[in-house]
Design goal:
The chain has helices at about 5-20, 30-40, 65-75, 85-90, 100-105, 115-120, 140-145, 165-170, 185-190, 210-225, 245-255, 285-290, 290-295, 310-315, 335-340, 345-350; strands at about 25-30, 50-55, 80-85, 110, 130, 155, 180, 205, 230-235, 255-265, 265-275. The protein is of the alpha/beta class. One iron/sulfur cluster binds near residues 335, 338 and 346.
Length: about 350
Amino acid sequence: MNKKELISKISEKIHEEAKDAGKIKIMHLCGTHEDTITKYNLRSLLPDNIKLLSGPGCPVCIIPDEDLQKVFHLIEKENIIFTTFGDMARVPHNGKSLFYYKAKGYDIRIVYSIFDAIKIARNSSRTVVHFGIGFETTMPSTALAILDAPENFCVFSSHRYFIPAMEHLISLGVEVNGFINPGHVSTITGIKAYEKIKKYGIPQIISGFEPEDVMLSILKLIKAIKRGDAEVFNEYTRAVTYDGNVMAQKVMDDVFSVDDWEWRGLGVVPRSGAVIKEEYSEFDVVKVFEDAFSDFVPVEDKAKKACRCGDVLRGIITPLDCPLFNKRCTPKDPVGACMVSFEGTCNIWAKFGVERN
Ligand code: SF4
Ligand code: SF4
């Protein structure tokens, strides 16, 4: 059976299983899953009573404007080299972005890994500040880099723990009957990390990224929902184990402690922020440049008033419900973070040409 036949076979099974299932909402939590779903048009293979929502799955999209503004503030005040991943450099705020600063002659460098930023620091006498973003997927690399960093290197930690955000979404009253959990995050955290979500009675499945993985995961979730079974299932057995990557967990625990931090669209999420521990404070930008941050005041971006990123990230609307989608807000000239990032739902929908019928 080829891939196409396999997917349509699973689709048939989903239709059969969904007949007497009532209305079901399934939320996935990963930019790469949204990419697969939209690229292969999987939503069109589901019956009308099964809705597939996208949640806060992109590490760039969920970083609040305040973090971005703090970075801009630092760059304007201090003679530093600032390193960042490419997507993050395009997120706008009040007409500025990290690319704007680069064009103005500030020393902003795009890196593909934090270890490139370390290399830059080793070859420079100036301080290199790295924008540490991402969930449990990238946090272990940042922790390892901090353990081996030269004196002139520090991190602006904007890393966030993913699983507290799932609990927070539920507490905000998001109506979902099942979750498709992020595959890469799960390789680090393991299945065990999701056990605490079980008490909310919502089944979860960790899924791989091929279209047949996602379709199988949907089928399995529908069956579990019908049975009233709130287990954590693992469809991504080729990469995810029960305990996860224990070494990576240890290095994260050694370097980071947790705090209540804000997420774009979700507000303050308890125990979701990755704070660099006191013993590594010489690598924490917040401590190293304490004076520079002392007069920081966040400013609202009025142009973003109509942007509905927050609602997209909570699965309340799809990009098509945003009046700016593919009009004022495009991948070339984005208004909100969800249109900037390659893992952002708006960007993915625009890229694959999803339009109103
Ligand atoms: S970091 Fe990995 S798991 Fe998380 S959203 Fe991106 S692709 Fe998905
Ligand atoms: S289309 Fe643009 S403005 Fe609208 S929610 Fe998405 S990113 Fe925000």
